[in-house]
Amino acid sequence: MKILFVFDEFNGFINQFKSKSFECFYASFYPASPVANFVPQDYIKSAREGANFIEKIFREQEWDIVVFSSETLVKETASYFAGEHRLGLVTHAEELIFNENGLSVRASAWENYEVRIISHSLPLLVISRSEGIVPVNIKEKEIIYFTKDSSVTLLSREALGENPLKSAKIVVCIGRGVKRELIPQVLDFGSKIGAGIGCTRPVADSGTLPYEMVIGETGISISPDVYISFGVSGAIQHLSCVNTKYIIAVNSDPLAPIFRKAVLPINQKIEEVLSEMSSNLNDL
User: Fold this and answer.
1) Which residues contact residue 125 at a Cβ distance below 8 angstroms, ignoring those fewer than 6 apart?
2) Preceding omega of 123 cis (within 30 degrees of 0)
């Protein structure tokens, strides 16, 4: 079977994808990628350009499986491409499994459950949630030319350092349930305990906090020792990217889904909990 790995600049895929005798090829959105068979003539700046890039590769060869990395632009491209061509798309993929019934995908699901999704059509499109490096040795490289997206202009491009949330041992996350006037108190609390501060996507969409702080499928994945959330409902798009055993959840909604995963669910008003926590810290 022929499998195409698609990534931006980061070659991040789980090693289980290479556990079978695949004929593997690699496509990067980064023109100077040293580990890609297919590269664009210029930087890809939008999901539309990414989809055009992949479509050109599809015209030249037939693929059985396409694995997309968890980078934001690549995930957006996967959705755009799948929608254009009416193809199914499996997210949170951990492993490809072959048996007598055909191909299936092991994927993450709610409450630490895993599901096995069986594919009845090809090509199979999956988004990997792994960040493991797969070494590749590319002998041939082809430049792909495609129609550029005129609605997007690249003004500058610069390398960014690693998001500090990725290495934080304690993470405090601000959800939509936190009133705007309470955010400075949450930030102060996080600073006092030496925590990294993150937020959910709706908080960033409202302009309250920057997108660099978003934890979730459209942001970053984190692996802290302790995760403390304020006003976070617990959508799978968010919690699937929180890898920790210890979740402390503060929410005034007794039915908040995050309570099902929390080792310490606190069903109280956020301002009351913040006041008590800050008071206890001041007494130390």
Assistant:
1) 65, 66, 68, 78, 81, 82, 87, 88, 89, 90
2) yes
Buried b (16+ CB within 10 A) or exposed e, 58-68: eeeeebebbbb
Residue pLDDT, tens place only, 183-197: 999 999 999 999 999
Query: Model pTM?
Result: 0.68
pLDDT digits (tens, 9 = 90+) for 95-128: 777 766 667 888 766 555 677 787 777 788 988 8
- Residue 54 in this model has a pLDDT that exceeds 90: yes
- Residue 12 structure tokens: 């991040």
Residue that the structure tokens 């006041």 belong to: 275
Q: Which domains does the chain have, with CATH numbers?
A: 2-144 (3.40.50.620), 164-283 (3.40.50.1220)
Render 1-39 in DSSP notation, one character per residue: -EEEEEESS--B--GGGGSS--EEEEEESSTT-TT-SEE
Using CA of residue 189, residue 191, residue 196, residue 200, what is the dihedral sign?
positive
Whole-angstrom distance, CA of residue 256 vs CA of residue 140: 52
> What would the two tokens of residue 7 be?
């990534």
